[in-house]
């Protein structure tokens, strides 16, 4: 039986690769597991209280059960669906996550969303982007910077990275169930023996192949994670390289870890086949037990659905995307922080340059930032009170290029007022 199902998975992966190039939800497939539906059309063709995929929505009059009642629902009454986003835009996919989280009634229906983004650095809800990456360098290299709605650390996405989002009622949230389901899929399909770390990362041969984060609300929750399949590790490292400055911040900091791609241990791994294998593992596994329901359980599920994240399918999703892509969300939500860097000035005792380091005339440039806007610029000298700097940069958005422009301007300062301020 296992061999038969594996053969079916491999066959479907090849079909799915062709299906994924479709750009509209109107296309269909002869494969039952990959289907599309007209917006807000249920399995019976009606549109009563159903989502674009046939799921009940929380505003459709469905009764909200208590936590205790949800936990009593037997696994055989919980259906599952695998959603495959047809978008590679990070802001659209974050909006789709948020739409499902806000609107779906997941009481009797659990969802796995699988999605792939163009090159992007994604930070956690409570992080400081300038402490996690070089925002100016990302912009120059055409790499997006996104802030998700969940916690956790910064990650790099590209077409060699598969993103998985598990949706369930808060009462049924089980992070280890989800992660173990992924390791089971990798072992079944490729014989890869990955494990969970103490921090609930998926590791392989001691190196991280998956990061994880969650959004826990009421009544719904989601848990999402990455899987490094064939990601460009050079671009990953460069994209998560920070500027060489001192940053003081109360924002959540990422914990760096050595990483590994799945292709490093098995060259046959490819992202579309892995996507298919994970989807099948989800569908053939009961809602709360990590047991194998096989083909019998798989055929009772709703299967794979190609998702087109548009307003036609998900009314209001464009507004959500606009919010995720906005400067106010990506940068304005940054907790207050300060940036410092030591520089040598041209101001010496008689106006000559200070060449030795450390020097009594070395100083630090400090920039205080609130809501990603420059609040104050000051100079810090040994045995001196901070010296405020009057600048038209105050009130402007902060970034690394702006900070280096400030430091370069102050390095070249050689005026009577500077020497007077320094007590020379």
From TrEMBL:
Pathways per UniProt: Protein modification; protein lipoylation via exogenous pathway; protein N(6)-(lipoyl)lysine from lipoate: step 2/2
Protein name: BPL/LPL catalytic domain-containing protein
Region (Disordered): 29-61
Domain BPL/LPL catalytic: 106-290
GO biological process: protein lipoylation
Family, as annotated: Belongs to the LplA family.
GO terms of molecular function: lipoyltransferase activity
Biased composition, class Polar residues, residue ranges: 43-61
Membrane-traversing stretches: none
GO CC annotation, single: mitochondrion
Coiled-coil residues: none
InterPro entries: aa-tRNA-synth_II/BPL/LPL, BPL_LPL_catalytic, LipoylTrfase_LipoateP_Ligase
